């Protein structure tokens, strides 16, 4: 039976065979295997194109957002600097500091100044209390 099958002529549809067999150029056959181009279907190409477009849109969105954040940051820094200059100009008569003094340092100087004035006031008050006590004791005798 096997011999009969081998002897039987086979009709090949030449048109169909031509559609399914891809001709490869001799240059392609000489390339190392890693360099031979991989054929992908149109579906994969379309998916990759959509993914690439989505990535481009995401990059464009993030670039715009980054630009907006940089502008907002610059505006905030200008506002902070203006506030610091305004604050310094108001305190210049009361405290001595240079233009590089930070808010924290100025606040510390204010606290120290208030503490010093409170101590001075308490000392003066105690002195006045003693003088008052002496005067009262002198009047009662």
Number of helices: 5
Residue stretches low in confidence (pLDDT < 50, at least 5 long) are none
Number of strands: 0
Q: Could you describe the largest sheet, including whether it forms a barrel?
A: none
- What class would the helix/strand composition place it in? mainly alpha
| Shape verdict | rod-shaped
* Strand-residue proportion: under 5%
Average pLDDT level: 80
Rg, nearest Å: 46 Å
N-to-C terminal Cα separation, in Å? 152 Å
Helix content, binned percent: over 70%
Oligomerization state: single chain
Q: In sequence order, what are the helices and strands, one letter per element?
A: HHHHH
Coiled coil: 45-72
Keywords: Coiled coil
Region (Disordered): 1-20
Biased composition (Basic and acidic residues): 1-17
Report on the structure:
Keywords: Coiled coil. With 141 residues, this protein is mainly α. The chain is built from 5 helices and no strands. The radius of gyration is 46 Å and the shape is rod-shaped. 0% of the residues are buried.
């Amino acid at each position: 039976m096997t011999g009969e099958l081998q002897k039987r002529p086979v009709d090949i549809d030449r048109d169909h065979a031509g559609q399914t067999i891809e001709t490869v150029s001799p240059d392609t056959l000489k390339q190392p295997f890693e360099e031979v181009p991989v054929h992908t279907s149109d579906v994969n190409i379309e998916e990759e194109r959509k993914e690439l477009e989505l990535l481009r849109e995401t990059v464009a969105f993030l670039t715009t957002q980054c630009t907006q954040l940089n502008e907002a940051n610059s505006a905030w820094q200008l506002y902070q600097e203006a506030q610091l200059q305004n604050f310094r100009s108001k305190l210049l008569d009361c405290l001595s500091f240079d233009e590089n003094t930070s808010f924290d340092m100025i606040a510390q100087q204010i606290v120290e100044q208030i503490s010093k004035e409170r101590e001075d006031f308490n000392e003066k008050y105690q002195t006045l209390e003693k003088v008052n006590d002496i005067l009262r004791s002198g009047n009662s005798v």
